[in-house]
Structure formats: structure tokens, C-alpha cells
Amino acid sequence: MSVVIPTLETERLILRGWRVEDHLSFAELCADEQLMRYVGGVMHPADAWRRMAAYMGLWPLRGYGVFALQDKASGQLAGYCGINHPEAFPAREINWGLTRRFLGRGLVTEAATRVRAYAFDTLGFERIDSCIVPENEASQRVAMRLGASLDRMDEFRGRPMGVWRHRKPGTN
Questions:
Q1: In the list 15, 33, 36, 163, which could disulfide-bond 8, CB 3.0-4.6 Å?
Q2: What is the DSSP string of 41-74?
Q3: Model-level pTM?
Q4: Which residues are 149's β-sheet partners?
Q5: Could you tell me the domains of the chain?
Q6: pLDDT tens string 47-77
């Protein structure tokens, strides 16, 4: 089955499908203890490859997925952002992460704003969530900047997480 993954753009980013050459930068992100502390912990490069493949695999299985974020200025992989919904996960969610060299520039908010618009305007979703562990204050601030609000506390694999709800404008 052939699936076309859309390419989206923002002022500073290209949101696109994953490429083999993204693996080294993604593995670097996945090996960073600070960056991964709230999303399952550090990964071996082989596990990062499997995560990257899982993000790609969402597209034919769900009709949406997680994009690789390419910095327009440098051409480098900046991180990821998209609609994640693995099997048994409690919600369809916007997720995100950046490599260390791209932190602190507002790129996550920029990418997530574009992904949210894609979810609402193209896919027709009326709501989408971001699942964030209570300790991850930086991601909670991103969710709030996006206009999401804490809907409820849930649990996934024995770990509490806040479910932050993004609602399409004009819906409840």
C-alpha cells in the first residue's frame, strides 16, 4: 500500500516524512537523558530506529502520523512533531521533541500549531490531546501556549499523565 505523507511548512520548519539519514540525529536525541526523561528514558540507537519506524508506520495504519522536523535554515533534523496514537495509548495526541541544538527557539510551539491546524482543518478532528507527565513543566507550558487545558489525569503503563485537550475553535 502506498501512502502519501504530506509535507507541511512553517516559517522556520519543514514537517515531512522520515528519511534514513534522519536516524543519527534522532538517535542522538533519543540518547539524551535530559530530553528523554519524561518520554520513556534513553534509547539505544536500534531502539531509536524502531521508534522512527513506528512513527512512519502510523501513516498507513491510522492515516496520520508523526513528522520529522527539518530546520529550513540548516537543513538539519530539528526533532519531531505530529499525531501519535500507538496501540493501547489512551488518546490520539500531538507529541513533540527537539534535538538539543534547537531548544529554546519556540520551534515546538511553531510545529505543534501547524500540526494542530492540520488535525482540525484537513483531518476534521474536533479535539486532540497532548499527554504530558506532571513533572514535564516545559511541555505543559507549550500546551498552554497552544490553548490546551488540562482535561483529566490518566495513567499509562503505571505512570500518571495529564491529558491536555486541544479543541477545534467553535466546538466544545
A1: 15
A2: ----HHHHHHHHHHHHHHHHHHS--EEEEEETTT
A3: 0.92
A4: 165
A5: 8-125 (3.40.630.30)
A6: 899 999 999 999 999 999 999 999 999 999 9
